[in-house]
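Fold it.
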Amino acid sequence: MPNIIEITDFDAPELDIYARLTENQLLNRHQPEKGLFIAESPKVVERALDAGCTPVSLLLETRHIEGEAREIIARCGNVPIYTAAYPVLRNLTGFPMTRGVLCAMRRPPLPSVEEICRCAKRIVILEHVMNPTNVGAIFRSAAALNMDAVLLTSDCSNPLYRRSVRVSMGTVFQIPWTYLPTEQGNASLELPVGQLKKLGFRTAAMALCDDSVSISDPRLAAEEKLAVFMGSEGDGLSAETISACDYTVRIPMSHGVDSLNVAAASAVAFWELGKAKETF
């Protein structure tokens, strides 16, 4: 029997997860084992459940109990299901809910870099990518276009922030990811580049430099294991990271355009660099 609770009190503490806690409070850096995230929309919740994530509670429109959320409710056991009409939920959360379903879930433990890379042939590394929309879009492209994993520096926007999860359409639960260890005070990827080389990867920095090679350069396609580095929305990759990589790579532009948004560039790069993966 579903544990359905009609919302009558906006200030009820059990609704803090949806109405009052910030993304950083949900993340709970000091006690990561207690960290939570919010999955939004039935499709995203389904993908999180498929990946083994543990639900804590659901918040949904009353009309979805026997509609779009019916299968999700059946899979979530006896967790509390808070429900109300759409206008009430909009006032509670402060944002329009995508297809009227939110699910609070426990954050799964992250694998090590070695675990991520063990069977991977094409991976992407993000340096200082702060926009959660871009992070979510990059994950979606990585999952769709033959990348095996995503690694991030600690200053990147967290892939399990609500907006990242939603923009990714739940692919953050389908492609392995973790954070790279970096020295305190060292924002570059110079040391992680060396770590990946020890794990058998050749490294490619996406950057506009005089010595850049085209994304279609056959040497890139010929690499059995390739790690692609992508930088922040404004400054791109650090000079130290670019210098440490085996290749510097550019996407040829036309009409005087100098570069693409990092999310758009990721889709182009993954398509081109992932095509050769299946030949190995």
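The first strand starts at residue 3 and ends at 6.
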